Sequence to fold (344 residues):
Amino acid sequence: MAYKRRTIKDIAKMAGVSPTAVSFVIHGKNGVSEKTKEKILAVIKETDYYPSAASQRMTLGKSFNIAFIYPTEVSPFSDLFYYEVANGITEELTDNKYNVVFIPLKCDLNSYELPYIIKRQDTDGVILLHETPVSLLDELEQLNIPFILVDWQSADNGRINISLDCEQSIYQAVEHLIKKGHTKIAFWGSDTMPHYYLRCLTGYQNALTSAGLPIYPGWIVNNVDSVNAAVNSLNNLSSLQVRPTAVCCMNDMCAINSIQAAALTGVKVPDDLSFISIDDILIGKHIHPQLTTMSYRKSEIGKVAAQLLLQLIANEKVESTVIKSDKIIERQSVLDLTKSNTLD
Fold:
C-alpha cells in the first residue's frame, strides 16, 4: 500500500485539537496549555510525524541549510586534518536538524564566484574553512547571513573565528624534544601558509630562547611541502658543519614527508634524526616509524564552530575561540637521548 504522508490536520484530528494548536507546538510557540501540548506530542511520537520542510520554511522563515565553504586545496574529503573537523561540524548540525551543504570554493588571486546557495539566500548560516577572500565575508555581512571562520590563516580581521594555538603547540613540541635531551633542534615547514608558518616559527624560536639554546638560521627551512623538498633538505644537512639531532615540523604532513624522505636517503629515524610535529592526523600512526605529535581535538573544533554558528543564528552574542593542544602523542619518531647518554 502506498505511503500517505500525514498532515497537521491529521495530527489535529487524532489529538482532538485545532490545526493551529498543533502548529504552535511544532514550532515552539506559546499559547497552548501544557495538557494540550502533551496530548499533541504524544500523537506526534506515536505516528512518527515530521512537518514538511516547505511548511517549516514558510512558517519559521528558515531554510535549515548550513553552507560549509572550503578552498579546493584543503578539501575535507582529501585533507585528513579537516576531514575530522568536518565530521564534528556535520554531527553537531545534524543533531540540531540542519542540513550541511559542502561547497568547494575556487579562488584565483582573490577572484571567486559567489556560491549559488548564498545568491539565493538559501542558507541560514555559513561556516568558512581555512582561508577565504575578505570580499566574500563582506558580501555575507551585507546579506546579513551569519558566518563563522574556522582556522582562519590571515591576520585577525575582527570576525568570529575558531583558531588553533599552533604557536603554543610548537612551543610544547620543542619542549618535549628538550626533555628528551635534544639541544640541536631544527624547524621545517612551508611558507605557502605564511601567517601560520610565522606563528609556528615564533613558537619554535620562543621555546629555544626560553631554554637558552642556540637558533641556527641554516636549520630553519620554509619549503618542505613534498617528499622531494624534504629529500633536498636532508641532503643540505650533510653540508652543514653543525647538524641538528631533531626537527620540529609545523604540521604532520611536513613530518610525514620528511620521514618518507629519510627512508629514501638512508637517514635512520629516530637514530640519526628525530621528528616531531603538531596535528595528530590518522596517517601519523601508520607510517614507520610512527610519528610523535601534539594532538588537537579536531572533531571538537568542528562541534564548537557549529555551536557558535547556531548561537549567531539565534541572535546570541558569541566570541572567537582558541582551541589549545595540550596532549603529546608519544610514538617512535623521537629518540630519547637522556637514556642513550645514560647507556653510554
Q: What stands out?
A: The chain is about 40% helix and 15% strand. The chain has three domains: 8-60, 65-164+298-325, 166-296+328-343. The longest strand covers residues 65-71. The mean pLDDT is 88.
